[in-house]
Amino acid sequence: MQFTVLGSGAGLPSKKRHTQSYILDAVDETNQYILIDAGEALQHRILHTSIKPSKVRSIFITHLHGDHIYGLPGFLSSRAHQGGEDLPLTIYGPKGLANWLDITFEISGSRLNYPLSIVEVGHKDCIEIDNFKVHVRLLDHNIDSFLYVFKENDKTGALDPDKLKGIGIEPGPLYAEIKKADVFEFNGETYRTSDFTGPDITGRKISVHGDTRVMAEPEYLSLIDRSDVIVHEATYLDGEQEKAHRYFHSEITSVLDNLKNIDYGALLITHLSNRYEDGFLNELAKELPSGVHLTHDFFEHPILRNSQENK
Amino acid sequence: MQFTVLGSGAGLPSKKRHTQSYILDAVDETNQYILIDAGEALQHRILHTSIKPSKVRSIFITHLHGDHIYGLPGFLSSRAHQGGEDLPLTIYGPKGLANWLDITFEISGSRLNYPLSIVEVGHKDCIEIDNFKVHVRLLDHNIDSFLYVFKENDKTGALDPDKLKGIGIEPGPLYAEIKKADVFEFNGETYRTSDFTGPDITGRKISVHGDTRVMAEPEYLSLIDRSDVIVHEATYLDGEQEKAHRYFHSEITSVLDNLKNIDYGALLITHLSNRYEDGFLNELAKELPSGVHLTHDFFEHPILRNSQENK
Asked: Per the CB < 8 Å rule, is B99 touching A103?
């Protein structure tokens, strides 16, 4: 699994930073990409990657500000001509999204050749998609803005060949049958499969924030605790906490402070204002704790199993 | 005056060709740009030019297909932060545009800090803007698609110093007063200014087509006759006239054939399908008559006075 930032900028695009879009690449696990947000020119960014729009089956929109959605109509229209024919797609996002897309497609005469579902989500919803449960949590912004916590389903542990050999079962086709069943019989005895498997493999957890002020509620912190990857905005990087608060955004030191009592594998800082120059960003990057990254467009981060324990 | 193609592609963007947008640069004449169409990532294209969004005071939308309008909300929103504060902007386009922009700005919480007027236009309208009359003509596409003929206002010819010297007036401050008036007095005699000026300077004419089939109506051809620049789509470049007709588009040889009995300075071919490769385009370009150009993104064409006579 891999997390890719397609657009890392805030508000206005620059030559280097497009507005917000991310890809959660679960192709190895489910042959699918999950797209989060769709800033303008998302489809142009995708042209410079190996991402196949047809394999995007779920889109999560954090909030409806233009820098997070103006690329959605173009992406959806083009996907129809990029191998997406007949391949269903579901968009999850705040109320208002369905009406806007309907009107946009109606006036522009766009007809999609694949089934599109739009699901308007709310605070504390839990969405099930292939191999993930996605927890939705309202953040603190000037319009409804959501955190999406993607929790990969746990996997049953592997069979332990030593234990199976202990009761006389050598590796062979029987293993597959045992693995599928809760109980199995051998030589007249009945066994529970769980006594012969290793511990469950915990699914990975990726917490992606929409625009927000820093949030200190314990219930929220507990929800994102032990994330393998946290994606958080920091529109302000230079200590302007008050200004960040006034504009319903975050400042980087407050973000780091706020997360210091929870565990995580990596923290990806996004939604960087275009007013910061490379020199400043490079200096700042050197001072950040290990595992905290200032992202850029096309930034890629592999999501390892239990990466929070590798910290 | 100069015409710049910001997006020369059809339907889907490619790495090289964005979807449709053009700039008519009238900065030398009126300190303004006129934007025609607004494909997605228009604002990203502008970042690579010297164009100031604040100086765009008029936008003309040929038709509402996504590849011509999906960049409009982003451009309008960003213009507010790019020096456009308080500087009015008017958009001319087909019915439906105002409602779509209203809903788009409403759901995305966008507030512009400059006055925006949206004027929905129709067949045979004539719009007056600074230094231009713009004639609107319905084309032949599967939704309402317009031709805009930008006719620069004629200018009064220059004063002829030889004629003025003939009645005893030497060059001096009086010349400016004479030029402003229809009649003037000198040594007790009354003269008509027009008897002392050269012929009127004909304004330039730029005819920009939205997507269309080739149109043979004499009234249409007469409207675009003697254009300094004609901008016409040719989604098909390889003789597929029937297919072009079926999809309400044009094929290049039909375009050239259709325009062979009118005068024009230059013909800019746009809306090129991304399926054509550079090799094919280069070969085709060599075979085209002088003055006919296959355009690309960032293609620039100076618009000279009376350029149709320089042919």
From this structure: yes
Number of Cβ pairs < 8 A linking chain A and chain B: 98
CA–CA min distance A143, chain B (Å) = 8
DSSP A80-130: TTTT-TT--EEEEE-TTHHHHHHHHHHHTT---SS-EEEEE--TT-EEEET
Give the single-character DSSP code of B165: H
Backbone angles phi, psi at B199, to 5 degrees: -65, 155
Q: What span, in angstroms and rounded, lies between the C-alpha atoms of A21 and A40?
A: 9
Burial track A227-258 (b if 16+ CB lie within 10 A, e otherwise)? bbbbbbbbbbbeeebeebbeebbbbbebbbeb
Residue B71: which of A40, A78, A107 has the nearest Cβ?
A40
Contacts 24+ apart (CB under 8 A), A234-239: A234/A269, A234/A270, A234/A271, A234/A272, A235/A10, A235/A11, A235/A211, A235/A271, A235/A272, A235/A273, A236/A273, A237/A272, A237/A273, A237/A276, A237/A280, A237/A281, A237/A284, A237/A294, A238/A276, A238/A280
Which pLDDT tens digit goes with each residue over B132-155?
A: 999 999 999 999 999 999 999 999
Q: At which residue do the structure tokens 């006055």 appear?
A: B115
Convert the pLDDT of each residue in A182-231 to its tens digit: 999 999 999 999 999 999 899 999 999 999 999 999 999 999 999 999 99
ipTM at complex level: 0.92
CB contact under 8 A, B99 and A107: yes
Domains contained in chain B, CATH given: 2-155+201-302 (3.60.15.10), 161-196 (no CATH)
What is residue B21's three-state secondary structure? strand
Please name the amino acid found at residue B293: H
What's this model's pTM, rounded to 2 decimal places? 0.93
Paired with A264 in beta bridges are: A227
| Inter-chain CB proximity A14 and B69 less than 8 Å | no
**Average pLDDT of chain B?**
95
Residue of B61, B63, B107 to mutate, testing the A interface (most A Cβ within 10 Å of its Cβ): B107
* CA–centroid distance for B172 within its chain: 38
Binding site: what residues of B are annotated? Answer: 63, 65, 67-68, 141, 211, 271
SS3 B130: coil
Token reading at A247 = 């504009």
Average pLDDT over residues A51-74: 98
The neighbouring-strand residues paired with B231 are B208, B268
**The tokens 């200590």 sit on which residue?**
A239
Cβ B102 vs Cβ B119: under 8 Å: no
For residue A271, give the nearest of A301, A292, A251 by alpha carbon: A251
Q: B interface mutation test: which of A20, A37, A40 has the most B CBs within 10 A? A: A40
Closest residue, chain B, to A108 (C-alpha): B65
- Catalytic site residues of A? 67
Whether the predicted pLDDT of A307 surpasses 70: no
Does residue B310 register a pLDDT over 60? Answer: no
- pLDDT, one tens digit per residue, over B69-110 is 999 999 999 999 999 999 999 999 999 999 999 999 999 999
The reply, when asked if residue A232 is annotated as ligand binding, is no
